Amino acid sequence: MINRNTHIYKFLAALFIGCFFVFSGCENDINIVRNLGKKTLGVDEAKNVESYMSQNGKTKAKLIAPIMLLSQDEYGKKVEYPNTLKVDFFDDTLHIQSKLFARYGSYSERDSKIFLKDSVIVFNVKGDTLICKELYWDQTTQRFSTDKAVYISQSLPARQRLIGIGFNSDQNLTDVHIGHVQPGSFFIVPDSSTVK
After folding, report:
1. What contacts 15, CB < 8 A, 6 or more positions away?
2. Coil vs helix vs strand at 56
3. Domain residue spans in the chain?
4. CA distance 116 to 105
5. What is the pTM of this model?
């Protein structure tokens, strides 16, 4: 009888110890639990991209980039151009009106704007040139804007070099607004005596 009780006690002790290890091993990391419901999506990569953008059935721009990264998060699609991009802007007759270059660009579906940074240069067919570190391009309004420092060189109607903080313009640099013109800016007004 004592032998039988000993086996029961050993069995209960083994069962208790086994349950202890099972329950102690079930502790979850709270961060792992939180991330279970989130989507984990990969990043698609395209090389030597040439993309055309249209509005109302008319081609408005052509973008060329060596690499394009496409991902998606809870806010929608995100496109990145991590290794330079170039854009040609067209008029209604498909003539190039202006060009853009930047070392980095990104587009978020949530913002509907393209963010450009690092050596951003825009120039038009008249020779006007914009240089800045950061710039936004709104595809819907076809306008550029930034609250950062800009340098702009214009040739007509008067030659001028402007340095300013804050900038807004159409994508052809014909309707330019500079927030705060800084010292170092200058204007050269053409001599009216040469006008016939």
Report:
1. none
2. coil
3. 44-194
4. 4
5. 0.69
